[in-house]
Amino acid sequence: MPNIKSAKKRVEIGERNRKVNIELKSKVRTLIKSSLRTAEAGDEKAVVAAVAQVFKAIDKGAKGSTYHKNKAARLKSRLTKKIKAILESSK
């Protein structure tokens, strides 16, 4: 355990940031799953809205330090690829 006041504060800040990161990552995973379910249903307008929500959450994470910018780009790319494949197979 830290003995210096500033070190104690850094521990508290790190814990707070960890909780925020966990919350955002969980939200992104949930949004991705729901957008894939929407794509399977076949409603394209709903899919566009769902993907916009996912992209917004991912970009928010990349803006801070939750996601590295390359990981954020990779997540968005993979999601787009999966959704296109689902929509094309349902036609």
What does it look like?
There is one protein chain. Helix content is 87%, strand content 0%. The chain is an all-alpha fold.
What's the topology here?
Layout: H1 5-41, H2 44-63, H3 69-90
Helix pairs in contact: 1-2, 1-3, 2-3
Observed structural traits:
single chain, 91 residues, 0% strand
- Percentage of residues in helical conformation: over 70%
Distance between the termini: 60 Å
Rg, Å, rounded: 18 Å
What characteristic shape results from the CA principal axes? elongated
| Fraction in beta strands | under 5%
Structural class: mainly alpha
Number of E-type strands: 0
The parts where pLDDT drops under 50 for at least 5 residues are: none
The topology string of helices and strands comes to HHH
Average pLDDT works out at 95
Q: Specify the number of helices.
A: 3
Major sheet = none
Q: What's the gist of this structure?
A:
By secondary structure, this protein is an all-alpha fold. The chain is 87% helix and 0% strand.
